[in-house]
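ESCALATION

Customer reports they have been waiting on this structure for their group meeting. Please prioritize. Original submission:
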Amino acid sequence: MAMMIPTVVLNFVISMVVSTIIIFVVTRLLGEKKGLGSAVLAAFGGAIIYALAYYFLGHGLLAAGIGGIVWLAVLGSVYEIGWLKSLLIAFVVWFAVSVLSFLPTVVGPL
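Update from on-call: job pushed to the front of the queue and completed.
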């Protein structure tokens, strides 16, 4: 009998792949030249930051705000950019993720 991958691990891997691709595309569109590894690092850093923020602060605006600010710092560090460009990248990534997560509800089950 084959060992089944727990749903949480599968969801994490899928979200990492999607986040990495979106971060890579957005940063390229905004003129950054770093490769896919930087996008993986930014996506993984964001996942860890938000997980820690929610673990220690609960699911609320404080955790989201602190996690968001720390993720902006990670983006700035990984891509060697300032706060404003980090904020722009984060906003475009958030918008893209929102659109992608909304699309399955628009087209319905296939």
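Sent to customer with the following note: The mean pLDDT is 86.
Escalation resolved.
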